[in-house]
Amino acid sequence: MSYKNFPMVPRVIFGRGSFNQLSEILAPKRLNINAPFIFLVDDVFKANSWLTSRIPLSYDDKIIYVSAAEEPKTSQVDSLVENIILNTKERPSGIIGIGGGTLLDLAKAVAIMLTNEGEAKDYQGWDLVKNEAVYHVGIPTISGTGAEVSRTTVLTGPDRKLGINSDYTPFDQVILDSELTKKVPTEQWFYTGMDCYIHCIESLEGTYLNTFSQSYGEMALELCKEVFLDEEGLKQSDSEEKLMMASWHGGMSIVYSQVGIAHAMSYGLSYLLGTKHGIGNCIVFDQLEEFYPEGVKLFKQMKEKHGIELPKGICSELSEADLNKMIDIAFDLAPLWENALGKNWQKIMTRDKLKELYLKM
Ligand code: NAD
Ligand code: ZN
């Protein structure tokens, strides 16, 4: 048996207001005055001087606002990289992503593509990145995806939605300041938070489970239950801190295991319909009682408690060809199915069965 040797985020700062320390964190990492820091910031903060006025800009440092309306694409990474190369005197000292999973993934991918030749799509897969990325920092402003700790950056390319999974992908530095999450709208809070909850269930119920993953998964699950079910008596700021740590632990749990059916199926929805990760996972997970009975029961309680209505009938208009494409995308993620259902997963989850599930959504 050969065990995988995974990298982790080497530096993390945690605490409300820790965002104010960004300047002192970055200063020693500046290569020279011609090598700027580039801040990729969710454009939801464009008019938010509370956050943007605290971004420390010196010399040629730049803020690039990016919309998170759509999930990141390989072509978007390529054009950001081109724009940065054309507009900087030297290779940047660092890339800082400020936002949710979308911005964090973009920051990781841009940092990688600044030092690796070709196009982002060439690196979708496992361990294809050759050169160390530019120094990169992740600052989440919404909690749940675990993108702040993960070894992947999920991108939609011309042929598939697949991560750049590599030892160079994880951030060099993460700043966990839960205050930055205080204005997240309730529905989005729920969808992204449920991404974390679903990571826990899929990891803990999976056949790949081991003590490393279990210990992180159980911790994250407990935090999710406190935040989404027992929040009475919990201060808003405590709830935000707990969800931020749940996201971190949930991400750590899947580093050494895998996600499962909800993720495989939600990749299909995302590729074909553009359904975003958090809500897509919720739409799928809602239909998976057969596979995760306890997890889905609790999910439905949380949904009800927070008055969340999921869209219905999203696959009902799809053609046979579209359904088949969606099934292909989902089945392409073999490790997720194997984790969920074991080595003989193909006997349990047939194309017909998968189609039937999609048509329920
Ligand atoms: P997101 O980044 O797509 O943002 C969702 C919405 O919330 C956007 O409208 C955004 O503008 C808004 N938002 C973010 N912070 C806010 C704030 N503080 N106040 C108000 N609005 C705010 O959401 P997400 O769910 O965090 O990320 C989804 C993405 O993460 C997907 O692209 C998915 O593929 C990716 N993902 C990556 C990993 C990984 O390990 N790399 C894991 C899971 C998901
Ligand atoms: Zn996820």
TrEMBL record:
Residues 191-294 form the Fe-containing alcohol dehydrogenase-like C-terminal domain. Signal peptide: none annotated. Pfam families: ADH_Fe_C, Fe-ADH. InterPro entries: ADH_Fe/GldA, ADH_Fe_C, Alcohol_dehydrogenase_Fe. One of its GO terms (molecular function) is alcohol dehydrogenase (NAD+) activity. Keywords: Oxidoreductase. The keyword Oxidoreductase applies. Residues 11-177 form the Alcohol dehydrogenase iron-type/glycerol dehydrogenase GldA domain. PANTHER family: 3-DEOXY-ALPHA-D-MANNO-OCTULOSONATE 8-OXIDASE, ALCOHOL DEHYDROGENASE. This is Iron-containing alcohol dehydrogenase. It comes from Seonamhaeicola marinus. The lineage of its organism: Bacteria, Pseudomonadati, Bacteroidota, Flavobacteriia, Flavobacteriales.
